What does this fold into?
Amino acid sequence: MHIEVKDLEKKFGSFIAIQKASFKIQKGHLVGLLGPSGGGKTSLLRMLAGLEQPDSGEIFFNGNLANSLSIQAREIGFVFQNYALFKHMTVFENIAYGLKVKKQKASVIKERVFHLLQIMGLEGIEKKYPHQLSGGQRQRVAFARALAPEPQLLLLDEPFAAIDAKIRKELRIWLRNLINEFGVTTIFVTHDQDEAIEVADEIIIVQKGRIEQQGSPWEIYNQPSSSFVASFIGESNSLASPISLQGFPDLPRYFRGEDRNSEVKVYIRPEWIEIRTENKYYLASASEPAVVSHVHFRGDSWFIEFQLTNGTKLFTYQSIKEHFLKVGDQINILIHQLIVFTPSETRVLENRSKIDPMPVFI
It folds into this structure.
């Protein structure tokens, strides 16, 4: 199903849940609705499902206006955060429920249910009840029940929120493979950015009822359209004062002008920072001297915090195979690039001293 939303708005009393939301979703894509709590993600999902009616705006399914369609006519499968399985029904009966509502033949229902049980890795538990299952099994049953009637659109409201971290990681891969196999257009709400980046074809960032940005995980991470997106997706060092950095002679000018300081944000991703410690060739005109302030072991990497001579505190990651650093070590850091947000523009600045470096041997 191809989806198009135009200028959608929704209020609950004086609270504005959704403001002029517009976006398109291609058929067969898996799209993550990502944003802080209360940002409007679930409200969007419920309006697509027909559980809430928009105050204004239009929803199109395959080019046809869907605002007035009943829930049943929308051909939507819905997986809730709390599974919402029927406690008095067996696994088989839960999965078969939608097919019985559509009055399918018993033979068709049986074939479809057992096919889904096999795909979901749930063979042999069809006679069990929900309370006899693990959290991961209950979630898979909920997916099977939603997919049984062959919906055109699958909506997932924080589907893994009630599952422990280890199982969640396993289910992310499982969900990606599942959607690829069924080819159904899928929208899932999550506040977990790692989950969205790993699973989704596209991400839609929602904040205060507005669509901040839509794009692939790579685009959202590497080309954020606003300081909010840059700070919300991934980790970043944030600079909010007019400092000077080697290789970035244009940086101070962005902070000039009356009352602009609070409106200018500078972000540096940790992977844009390189630590240099050995006595070898380095870019003297592009590097900054610093002192290590904290070192944290993260299993597959070191989380390094350090302070520049001008007092700026930054952090980055270093492979555990690299030279071991300790608090108080003198280092040189090379910032390869940074991104500047002002009220009028967004600019990615490259370290200009790398273009025509001055080599130094120490």
